[in-house]
Design brief:
By secondary structure, the protein is of the alpha/beta class. About 35% of the residues lie in helices and about 25% in strands.
Length: about 250
């Protein structure tokens, strides 16, 4: 898992180009849940700043943290000038300032589970909000999804990230909501889903796969082979499901 978490820097520009951004619905859902003004936010694993923009462009003072220098450099090209940036992994952040909101977009699964929630709690104002959101991107047509799976199978068994705590996909509450429900530092845990579908060209779908860690850690020759195999089974355009699962929790009052 650690090799996969460190694999993104070499493709920072492709990540920015091919990964979808986040809809304003996420911002609306987080602020409605907060039920009080969100003036400051800390982002964990900000990548190229797709979720950073969502909050910063609506007046939130965001501190975006990202361990990879190339990803952070790409982020700085796309976010408002008032965004503060810190090159650091979550585990390297030192508790000090507290924020109205701490959030992670498709990044929390890369953090070390040891003391994860106590560290997070130390960064959130009492009564403040923690949010995590993301989701897989897969072909909407089951036949296309099966063909892609068969084409990649000699090289990559699965290209998603399994649930860190082993929660099965059919469970009503998914990770990290499962861990938040057991945490002594957070309460009022909620899970919401924003359904989305997008249509990509076959080339852009391959471009998206080129930013997925399961492929990034392959040797170059194998990566070229698997993408060629997948390209052969794709239609000219690929409708994809890119539903976002959002978890929200409130920092317990002292």
């Amino acid at each position: 898992m650690s090799a996969r978490s460190r694999s993104f820097g070499a493709i920072a520009q492709a990540y920015e180009r091919f990964r979808p951004g986040y809809p304003v619905d996420v911002y609306d859902m987080v602020t409605a849940y907060a039920a009080r003004p969100i003036k400051t936010a800390l982002e964990i694993g900000a990548g190229t700043g797709k979720a950073t923009r969502l909050f910063a462009e609506r007046g939130v003072a965001v501190t975006a943290t990202e361990p990879d220098a190339a990803m952070l450099a790409e982020l700085r090209k796309h976010v408002p000038a008032h965004v503060a940036t810190v090159q650091a992994a979550f585990e390297e952040l030192r508790p000090g300032e507290r924020y109205d909101l701490v959030y992670a977009a498709a990044a929390l699964h890369w953090t070390n589970p040891r003391n994860r929630w106590s560290r997070l709690a130390a960064m959130v104002e009492p009564g403040g909000v923690f949010a995590s959101f993301g989701g897989p991107i897969e072909p909407a047509d089951p036949a296309v999804a099966d063909a892609v799976c068969a084409a990649r199978s000699p090289f990559v068994e699965r290209h998603d990230v399994p649930s860190p705590d082993g929660t099965p996909p059919e469970a009503e509450m998914q990770w990290p909501g499962t861990e938040l429900q057991r945490s002594e530092w957070f309460t009022d845990v909620r899970q919401e889903v924003i359904e989305r579908r997008l249509t990509l060209t076959a080339d852009d779908y391959i471009g998206h796969l080129s930013t997925v860690s399961a492929y990034l850690v392959l040797p170059d020759a194998q990566r070229e082979q698997v993408f060629a195999a997948i390209a052969r089974v794709l239609p000219e355009t690929v409708e994809i499901t890119t539903d976002l699962t959002i978890h929200l929790a409130r920092r317990c009052e002292p």
